[in-house]
Amino acid sequence: MLREIRPVTIGRYLWEPGTLGLGLLVLSLIIWGSGDKVIERTLTVALINTVMVIGLYIFIGNSGVLAFGHMAFALIGAYAVAWFTMSPFKKSFALDLPTFLAENTLPLLPSAIISSLLAALVALVVGIPLMRLSGIAASIGTFAVLMIFYTLYSNWDSWTFGASTLVGIPIYVNFWVALAWAGVALMVATIYQKSRFGLALRASRENEAAARAVGINVPTQRLIAFVLSGFFMGLGGVLQAHYVGSIVVRGFWLGPTFIALAMLMIGGQRSLTGAVVGVIVVSALQEVLRQIEVVIEQYGLSQLIIALLMLMILIIRPRGIAKGREIPWPFARQAAAAPAASAPAITAAGGDMEERLEAHDVSVNFEGLAAVDEVTVSMGRHEIFGLIGPNGAGKTTLVNVLTGFQKPTHGRVVLAGVDLTGMPPHRIGRRGLARTFQAVRLYPDMLVIENLEAAAVGTGLSRREASRRARAILEWMNFRDKAYDHADTLPYGDERRVGIGRALAMAPHFVLLDEPAAGMSDAECDDLMALISRIPGDFGCGVLLIEHNMRVIMGVCDRIHVIDSGRTIGEGTPQEIQANPAVIRAYLGSRSE
Amino acid sequence: MQAVVQNIIDALSLGSLFALTSLGIGLIFGIMRLINFAHGDLIMIGAYALIVPSAAVAPQLFIGAWHPAAVVAAIILIVIIFAVACERLAFRPLRDADPSVLLIASFALSFFLQNLVLLIYEGRPKGVDLWPVLTDPFLLGDIRMPRLQIVMIAATAALLLLLVAFLKRTAIGRQMRAASEDFMMARFLGVRANRVIAAAFAISGLLAAVVSLLFVVQNGVLKFDMGVPLVLAAFVGTVVGGMGSLTGAVVGGFVVGVASVFFQIVLPLEMRLNRDAWVYGLILVILLLRPGGIVKVKAVEERI
Fold first, then answer.
1. Which helix or strand (DSSP H or E) is residue B78 part of?
2. How far is B68 from chain A (nearest CA, A)?
3. How close, in Å, is residue A474 to chain B by CA atoms?
4. Is the Cβ of B267 closer than 8 Å to some Cβ of chain A?
5. Is residue A93 packed enough to be buried (19+ CB in 10 Å), middle (13-18) or exposed (0-12)?
6. B276 closest CB neighbour out of A151, A258, A315
7. In CATH, A357-592 is 3.40.50.300
8. What is the reported pLDDT for A588?
9. Which residues face B126 on adjacent strands?
10. Which of B273, B243, B240, B270 is nearest to B258 (CA)?
11. For the segment A440-486, what is each residue's pLDDT rounded down to a tens digit?
12. Contacts with B107 from chain A: Cβ below 8 Å
């Protein structure tokens, strides 16, 4: 069975780099065949830019964090390779390097790789603190890095020849070399993007809170991409140095930063296809305009028009030419084709079935207002435990405390005897505590199956294991036909069910469902009740259920805990709760007394 | 004493320029999540509007030769027209786009405006002598006071007060504040998006025009990319101050300005060329300690 689908699997895996690489190769052959030296030059530059823009894409595309500072890594790579590969004679003119570097010349390929690794190393060092930042703060942080290196290199006379142009770097890059490296970049970007690391990072791009909830350590995942993208930016700098033969610090400043980012945005920042298409389109436009400029002898006009065209492309296609999609796979999806019997069975989570999830005297104060006031709950893995209360009672706040999204003012959260209080959400997720969100928070621009896979990967599974578990759960939920739908195309009720599936993909010991039935029709509620009541038995996973729909609560819960204005007002079986006067008062008001 | 006063005035006046520029950027970011990189080019356009269009290195003053009050009025008007036109033609069609796309669009717009000026005026820097009387220092006791820098600080203070009054007292000002708290909600409550955004661009144009006049008098040089260092510093200031807060933008602008002057003074001579590396190193430290900026805004935080 496995052997039969293997060639298809490999073909599917290599589809994007294969098609894009082939496209670049055909383009190269046509231009090489034409023998036009000017266009050949443009193509070489475009291929070097492809390496850089793929580098940018690895970080920006997968993380969703806009970084401005990547030219710093190209700068570092380019100067490092000059130190390694210039002849001692040429170095002696401009530079005052330490003896070892001054007197030796290293071979070209190792120099290229070491220089790019150096850029990656710098990315690692600056990335460790910077990747804890999000959004615009991260963008500015990376820009500050560029500013710092730009300033230092401009004034570091003995190593960089200051702001002057450093000449005499050996020239060996032609468009075949650039094409080969562009192919390498395509391949590595693909491997990364399809790996568990790429999957986890894209989940964090789509919804950071939901990524942390499934066990993904967002700063670490960003750092991995940042280092990889630093490597390819460094490599881009190296190739440029070996193509032009001279470098200048100014050449790694705002202009190239803008062009590289614009290429990525115009192609579409969220797909590898977009990155490559963006480079080709912008390069081609530039070349055509330059040719026209020569003919009409109106110099400077091409820059003006290229800026205008870029603006127009962004206005017409704000998500880029590729719209964030890859080149579509032309054949049927394997999962749809494979018989149902091949779907793996779900397995219950391991560990001690007797362990308990407990909150002891948890209180949360928001600026003096007690949202949760000394609430104690305790539940086991066999049961479905309801948590109810009027709007604003503090139910979601309690779930946030349990899952690490909210620090309690005092009190403790204990899972299987281990104190979880103060742990970040991703570590709590990895310890077997899963949750859904009131606002669902799926990863909208990912497939349904990827939503589940990201959660499985977040708890530490390999890519292959994650895929098995995701398919098993979709099968269990009777959702297999929608596995390859984009999550943002699902109807509302299905979104909520995928949210539950995603939480279960973590193989949790406890799952916290925050209003799963909200907005569902009666028929959908019946399906949901059937689904929830199967969770403890099939997964060995306790369910904490917040819900306003009393039919659902009374229908599936073993025990129910009621809070009002942050305080516990009752706990017991559904029958006991329905007869509890305090609960009736809270829900129906004092008139019913 | 002379040196101390001079240093303080230097820090405050540079901070003023950055703060006015930061405010122009912060105002628009608060409402439409656009970081307008082209703001620097509005400053540049205000400066070039002073001269007769030509490629000459020592150009004839045109608007710049008018009565000072007329110069101020004309430059403000011209920059406001450009600012509002940029919004109408480039940013309005992109209103629902991702912030990173908006930013790249503003990059492209900036690139366009710079190349437009290059095409008309050519690339060489131009010397301009606007209001030379302002650059004469005057004596306060025995201390020489730089007149222009005092004017800069005073003009900034006056503009900030005016802006506060505008935002608090006028209907459109209140709508702008509501829009920067929660644009969607403000629209539900009847705030007209196009009007508020156009007003924000007009005010950012006014701020840019004032900066361009002060900057030209101080430096006496026009260059097609003269707005870039200003906008970079201001952009960083906006973020460090606290993205989405107008107070934060002003504070952040001053932080960057004061830090620049501070490092210029304390660094030993041989390290002074690397001043910007120190300034941006400090910025990184502030960002890491306070990722939300110095003045934190509640609305930016996400509820789970």
1. helix B68-86
2. 33
3. 26
4. no
5. exposed
6. A151
7. yes
8. 72
9. B222
10. B240
11. 999 999 999 999 999 999 999 999 999 999 999 999 999 989 999 99
12. 258, 261-262
Q: Are A64 and A205 in contact (CB under 8 A)?
A: yes
| B256–chain A nearest CA distance, Å | 12
Interface contact flag, B98 A318, Cβ < 8 Å: yes
From A134, which residue of chain B is nearest by alpha-carbon distance?
B291
Number of H helices, E strands in chain A: 26, 12
Looking up tokens 């560990």, which residue turns up?
A351
**Residue A303 to residue B115, Cβ atoms within 8 A:** yes
With CA atoms as reference, the chain B residue closest to A149 would be: B277
Contact: B108, A262; criterion CB under 8 Å: yes
Question: Nearest to residue A231, comparing CAs of A400, A103, A70?
Answer: A70
| DSSP SS3 for A477 | coil
Distance CA A171, CA B254 (A): 47
Please enumerate, as own/partner, the contacts of B113-119 that have beta carbons within 8 Å and a separation of 24 or more.
B113/B38, B113/B41, B113/B44, B113/B45, B114/B41, B114/B44, B114/B224, B114/B225, B115/A300, B115/A303, B115/A304, B115/A307, B116/A304, B117/B44, B117/B45, B117/B48, B117/B224, B118/A300, B118/A303, B118/B224, B119/A300, B119/A301, B119/A304
Task: Give residue-wise pLDDT tens across range A258-276.
Answer: 899 999 999 999 999 999 9
Which residue ranges make up each domain of chain B? Answer: 2-300
Angle at the Cα of A491 from the Cα atoms of A200 and B95, rounded to 5 degrees: 70
B contacts of A406 (beta carbons < 8 Å)? 304
| Closest CA relative to residue A227, chosen from A188, A261, A177 | A188
Q: How far is CA B189 from CA A353, B170, B184, B185, B219, in A?
A: 53, 17, 9, 6, 46
DSSP class per residue in B144-155: EE-HHHHHHHHH
| Under 8 Å between Cβ of A158 and A270 | no
Give me the residues paired with residue A542 across strands.
Answer: A510
Crossing angle for the helix pair A254-267 and B99-121, to the nearest 10 degrees: 130
CA distance B280 to B11: 16
Residue in A148, A151, A405 closest to B304 by CB: A405
Q: Does B55 touch chain A (CB under 8 A)?
A: no
State which amino acid sits at residue B109: L
Q: Which two tokens stand for residue B213?
A: 């006049």
Residue B101 is nearest to which of A148, A265, A406, comparing CB atoms? A265
**Contact flag A129-B288 (C-beta cutoff 8 Å):** yes
Contact A148 B281 (CB under 8 A): yes
CA angle A312, A316, A322 (to 5 degrees): 110
- Residues of A with Cβ-Cβ distance to B304 under 8 angstroms: 209, 400, 405-406, 437
Contact between residue B143 and residue B9 where contact means Cβ atoms under 8 Å apart: no
Interhelix angle A301-316/B99-121, rounded to 10 degrees, is: 160
A542 backbone dihedrals φ, ψ, rounded to 5°:
-70, 150
- A312 touches B: beta carbon within 8 Å: no
Pick from A148, A307, A315: CB nearest B111: A307
**pLDDT tens for each residue of chain B, 304 residues long:** 788 888 898 899 999 999 999 999 999 988 888 889 999 999 999 999 999 888 888 888 888 888 888 999 999 999 999 999 999 999 999 988 888 889 889 999 999 999 999 988 888 898 888 888 787 778 777 777 788 888 899 999 999 999 999 999 999 999 988 888 778 888 888 888 889 999 999 999 999 999 999 999 988 899 999 999 999 999 899 989 988 788 899 999 999 999 999 999 999 988 889 999 999 999 999 999 998 888 877 655 567 7
Cross-chain Cβ contact A303/B291 below 8 Å: no
Question: Smallest CA–CA separation between B183 and chain A, in Å?
Answer: 19
> B2-300 has which CATH code?
1.10.3470
